[in-house]
Amino acid sequence: MIGILIIGGSDCSCGAGVQGDLKTVTALGAYGTTIITCVVAEHPGRVEALYHLPSSIIESQFHSILDFFPISAIKIGMLYKKELPQKIAELIQKFKIKAPIVVDPVLAAGNGDSLAEPGMEEELAKNLFPLATVVTPNLEEAEILSGFRIENPDDILHVAQDLSEQYQSSFLIKGGHLQGKTTIDVLHYKGKTYNFELPRILNANPHGTGCSLASATAVFLAQGLDLPQAVEKAKSTLYEKIKNQLQIGPFYFLPPA
Ligand code: PLP
């Protein structure tokens, strides 16, 4: 069994955040450990309240895990506090972690609710992008990081390349929020662009799908797949799971594309 370290916020509705990641990692047969950075009261549609934890308890969780558990990949999600990217980068270096690191630069939920202090993007870019095997922004986060408005699939290709060149790291842009009959995710890796496209599942609730794509990619990287293969397998595995998702209510379903 392989161990995956998940760092992020608690989503009480358990679709996104640490709970969503832990379910994904468990479903894929790995053992997930978690470092909780904040507790979010939310449901698929709205963030109601948020409480962030002091960085001392984040450091203690890090020690508790790293002193005992072998870690084959790390998935970093919602950090909220601007001081945390530097703190986590220091801990990763202190423990000399060599495993692949998936950095999900969580800035806002799909509904636009903020999940980070203002200025978080600079702290992530400075401290965690250089350590990342891949950075996985959604469309809105890619727009904030690049300063470019994304309106069509071609824009995603260009922005993935620009971000990779600007930050000298691989970028996977999760394009699920772009309307259309398919969902398109674009990876820029070692100078090449890879396009992952599957039919959109109508009436699916997308909450947490971005988190799960990133954590599934972390599992497949830990298993030794190279990045394009890991993303492809993560996307196709999630596609099957989303088809079978729990139906929780009509209020948040997207209109058919
Ligand atoms: N809540 C938490 C704790 C998260 O980490 C994330 C991840 O981006 C979200 C909510 C956003 O979820 P979504 O945009 O899929 O609704």
Automatic annotation (TrEMBL):
Designated name of the protein: hydroxymethylpyrimidine kinase
Residue ranges of every copy of the Pyridoxamine kinase/Phosphomethylpyrimidine kinase domain listed in the record: 11-250
Keyword Nucleotide-binding: yes
Enzyme Commission number(s): 2.7.1.49
Pathway noted in the entry: Cofactor biosynthesis; thiamine diphosphate biosynthesis
Coiled coil: none
Keywords: ATP-binding, Kinase, Nucleotide-binding, Transferase
Entry-linked InterPro entries: HMP/HMP-P_kinase_dom (IPR004399), PM/HMP-P_kinase-1 (IPR013749), Ribokinase-like (IPR029056)
Biological processes annotated in GO: thiamine biosynthetic process
Record's keyword annotation contains Transferase: yes
GO MF terms, alphabetically ordered: ATP binding; hydroxymethylpyrimidine kinase activity; phosphomethylpyrimidine kinase activity
Pfam families recorded: Phos_pyr_kin (PF08543)
Source organism per UniProt: Methylacidiphilum caldifontis
GO terms under cellular component: cytosol
